[in-house]
Amino acid sequence: MGSTIVIKDVDEEAYRSLRSEAVKSGLRVGEAASQAFRLWVQQRRLGRLRDVDRLRRAAEVMDRNRAKLTQRKDWSSVEVIRSWRELRRP
Questions:
Q1: How many CB atoms lie within 10 A of CB 22?
Q2: What pTM does this model have?
Q3: Phi, psi values for residue 2, rounded to 5°
Q4: pLDDT in tens, 27-72
């Protein structure tokens, strides 16, 4: 069981919505609020991992490097992957 926590300046409509959904789900308001807090923190952490501008720049660099490559007729990535799979089989 958690402790009693007072949170000031909570939007009343948001609280009513949370309370309503908690009741529909058979949860106490505190349990629903705890889930909401955990989800909010998780999304913030994932947001930091997914820096869209950084991903876009990395993709541009990969595309430029890929454009510089020439196709080799004596080598097949498909065959390499198949041989790796064969090695991994028990």
A1: 18
A2: 0.51
A3: -85, 180
A4: 999 999 999 999 999 888 876 667 788 889 999 999 999 999 888 8
Decide if pLDDT at 20 tops 70: yes
Start-to-end Cα distance in the chain: 48
The two tokens of residue 44 are 């913030």
- Sequence-separated contacts (24+) of 19-28 with Cβ below 8 Å: none
Rounded Cα gap, residues 12 and 66, in angstroms: 54
Helix H segments across 26-72?
Answer: 29-49, 52-68
Neighbours of 41 (CB within 10 A): 10
Q: Which residue has the tokens 């790796």?
A: 84
State both tokens at 12.
């009343």
